[in-house]
Specification:
Elements: H1 2-27, H2 30-40, H3 46-51, E1 72-73, H4 75-85, E2 93-100, E3 112-116, E4 127-130, H5 136-142, E5 146-148, H6 150-159, E6 166-169, H7 181-186, H8 202-211, E7 213-217, E8 223-230, H9 235-251, E9 262-269, E10 275-277
Helix pairs in contact: 4-9, 5-8
């Protein structure tokens, strides 16, 4: 009897065991599993969704009704087009861009110079003049913003501040500028005989710079970029400035440069597309 009871008890336990396992599995329902997953996963808040900004690509303005961008125009007509397509709220600069037939890797084919525009650029520039003590008064009267010799050089060396757009110097003071040559050179401010900023008549040079004398030089891609005025200028004044610059640039053609010197010319304003100009 005892043996039969023992066997009966073992059978009952075996039958109950699978049911127990099944009941444990049934407790983890899909809803429970989803709830547990949500507890572990970070919740995406509305604030995070709102921070995602849509990237919008600005559409280029269509000026096809005003001019053909593939066509070259006479200088005066091209300037009139620039005035029409310049939409800035400020008085934008009018720029001219020359693409030259030169090899910029050759030292004898570098193009640089200076020219006094008859109608100025409409831009006020600050000039620093490194001159001897006896010339300081005349240079100040001509309009120089920073004037001095050793004192001015030492100040720039100490502060490394150059709050001016052009620097001129007398030949005798060029050796003194060696201590700040790195500061001026990296900012394109080092005086040079090639652009008439090393001069024996500093007062006259300052006066010309204030009236609109500009310097130009080619970049690594054989281009020359410079300002010839502002959109508010009369077209004839802009044309006079352009023609004056063009004549000086032609004379600066390197002797070793063969073929046509001017490959392409275009006008633009501060934030406008370019307009091609007929090369004359």
């Amino acid at each position: 009897m005892k043996a039969e009871k023992k066997e009966t008890k073992e059978i009952e336990e075996k039958e109950a065991a699978p049911k127990a396992v099944k009941s444990e599995k049934e407790e983890i329902t899909p809803k429970v599993a989803k709830a547990k997953k949500e507890e572990v996963a970070p919740k995406t808040t509305k604030a995070k969704k709102e921070t995602k900004k849509k990237i919008r690509v600005a559409k280029k303005a269509d000026y096809s009704a005003i001019y053909d961008r593939l066509k070259a125009y006479a200088p005066e007509e091209a300037l009139e087009i620039i005035k029409k397509i310049s939409k800035t709220k400020f008085d934008a600069s009018v720029e001219v861009h020359f693409h030259l037939s030169i090899n910029t890797k050759k030292g004898d084919q570098q193009v640089r110079g200076a020219v006094s525009l008859p109608n100025g650029t409409g831009k006020t520039i600050k000039v620093a003049a490194f001159v001897a003590a006896e010339n300081e008064a005349a240079v100040k009267a001509a309009g120089a913003d920073f004037v001095g010799g050793e004192e001015l050089i030492n100040e720039i060396k100490k502060t490394e501040k150059t709050d001016f757009q052009v620097a001129i110097a007398e030949p005798a003071l060029m050796k003194n500028l060696a201590m700040i040559a790195k500061i001026l050179g990296t900012r394109g401010l080092m005086p040079s005989p090639k652009n008439d900023t090393v001069t024996t008549n500093p007062a006259k040079t300052v006066e010309e710079l204030k009236k609109g004398k500009i310097s130009f030089k080619n970049d690594d891609t054989a281009n020359v970029h410079t300002v010839i005025g502002r959109v508010s200028f009369d077209t004839k004044k802009l044309l006079e400035n352009y023609q004056t610059l063009l004549e000086v640039l032609k004379k600066a053609k390197p002797a070793s440069s063969k073929g046509s010197f001017l490959k392409n010319i275009s006008f633009s304003s501060s934030m406008s597309p370019g307009v091609k100009v007929i090369i004359s």
